[in-house]
Amino acid sequence: MEWGMANRLAQLVQADGHCLFLPVDHGYFQGPTRKLEEPRKTIEPLQPYADAFFMTRGVLRTSVDPGNTKPIILRVSGGTSVVGKDLANEGITTSMEEVIRLNASAVGMSVFIGTDYEKESLLNLARLVSEGERYGIPVMAITAVGKELEKRDARYLALACRITAEMGARIVKTYWCKDFEKVTRGCPVPVVMAGGPQVDTELEVFEFVYDGIQKGAIGVNLGRNIWQNDYPVAMIKALRAVIHKKATPQEAQEIYDSVKNKELSSLKVKAVKKV
């Protein structure tokens, strides 16, 4: 592996072999997303606890201080929206020259396997990998399912992850699912988890992240479960403990509750002082 490629990957994956990527790229197809309406306000309090951010060039330029940031994985696919006909009909939106100008550590794009645009998205990935390898920039492939959430099973995700790895992706982002070890076992490059099933409690998030790490994932690329939580700093600290400190779900819950209670106490003190 070339020095530049190895260096960029080392910026993303920490010395313990694990990572916590925080995606804030949702606006590229959803528009203003709940609790991400003003990206800078969402990003700043979470920045100390993320290993890297996943975002578009627009949010990077407008919402991140270039003198104080974490490594950036740049979202370079798009061209569709939630109100359009088909989310799978994405193209490449950002040149590799601009990726270099913005000093990104990696790029990421969605691949829609099993859709009408399977061939186009896989060929886009192949071209992006070829450009990335030329300049020493790793590519993260995202096994997107569009609006077809029923595809989040081990058989489909194992297929999708293996194909994107075969195309040359250095990291694959995919959904957690039941029998997740079948996904990681068949993928020869590192796997990071996106959000799992819709859950009602923080503990359920800690449980699926813990399960995925135990079954071979190196970390997460988890956004809404963090920044849409009422206490996002507590959430990211607890998840960081699962990923980097081998905390159990129960231990993570204790961390979450402790940080949350400290925040509540601080707010009560401030309220009393105002009175």
Strand and helix map with partners:
Layout: H1 3-12, E1 19-23, H2 27-30, H3 39-43, E2 52-55, H4 57-63, E3 72-75, E4 77-78, E5 91-92, H5 96-101, E6 106-111, H6 118-135, E7 139-143, H7 154-166, E8 171-175, H8 181-185, E9 191-194, H9 202-214, E10 219-221, H10 224-227, H11 232-244, H12 249-274
Parallel strand pairs: 1-2, 1-10, 2-3, 3-6, 6-7, 7-8, 8-9, 9-10
Antiparallel strand pairs: 4-5
Helix pairs in contact: 9-11, 9-12, 11-12
* Low-confidence runs: none
Number of domains: 1
Q: What's the CATH architecture name? A: Alpha-Beta Barrel
Provide the β-strand percentage band.
5-15%
Morphology: globular
Radius of gyration: 18 Å
Adjacency order of strands in the biggest sheet:
1-2-3-6-7-8-9-10
According to DSSP, the number of beta strands is: 10
- Quote the CATH topology: TIM Barrel
Rounded to the nearest angstrom, the distance between the terminal CA atoms is 61 Å
What would you give as the CATH superfamily? Aldolase class I
What sequence of helices (H) and strands (E) makes up the elements? Answer: HEHHEHEEEHEHEHEHEHEHHH
Major beta sheet summary: 8 strands, parallel, barrel
Q: Specify the CATH class.
A: Alpha Beta
Number of helices: 12
How helix-rich are the residues, as a percent range? 40-55%
Overall mean pLDDT stands at: 94
Structural class: alpha/beta
